[in-house]
Amino acid sequence: MKDLFPVTIAPETIYSDRLRIEPIIGDSMAPRLRGGRDFVLIKPVDSYQGEGTYLWSDGVGKSFCNVHSTLGGKLRLWHENKLYSEHFLTRDEFSEICLGIVVADVAVRAEHILRMEIAQ
């Protein structure tokens, strides 16, 4: 028989040396993730780990995109912001640019309080 309540993840998990916090840069993942305000918790990886949001090197810096496998075997990279184009890469091509997979979103809710904390 399954438990009525799912197992919760301990808050200490985010302090793992295998996970790191990255700021969202730019507007490619807007409106879900807002550049300059939101953060994500990533696990550094160098290959496709299944459908999800990934951090990757775009040749100039770091960027975020959603990735999933297509029926043709390629990976589709796409952004939440429809102004950005999608890309199709082989798994090997993706492995060359993959920096990590997002395991949690950190959406800032009270920006004014966060800014006060930064100023202190």
Q: Helix proportion of residues, in percent?
A: 10-25%
Q: Report the order of strands and helices.
A: EEEEEEHEH
Strand order of the largest sheet: 1-2-7-3-4-5-6
Q: Helix count, per DSSP? A: 2
N/C terminus separation? 51 Å
Keywords:
7-stranded antiparallel β-sheet; 120 residues; globular; 13% helix; 7 strands
Q: What do you see in this structure?
A:
By secondary structure, the protein is an alpha+beta fold. It is 13% helix and 32% strand. The chain has a 7-stranded antiparallel beta sheet. A hairpin with an 8-residue loop joins β5 and β6 (87-89). It is globular, with a radius of gyration of 16 Å.
Break the fold down into its secondary structure elements and pairings.
Layout: E1 20-23, E2 39-43, E3 52-57, E4 62-69, E5 75-78, E6 87-89, H1 91-97, E7 98-106, H2 111-119
Antiparallel strand pairs: 1-2, 2-7, 3-4, 3-7, 4-5, 5-6
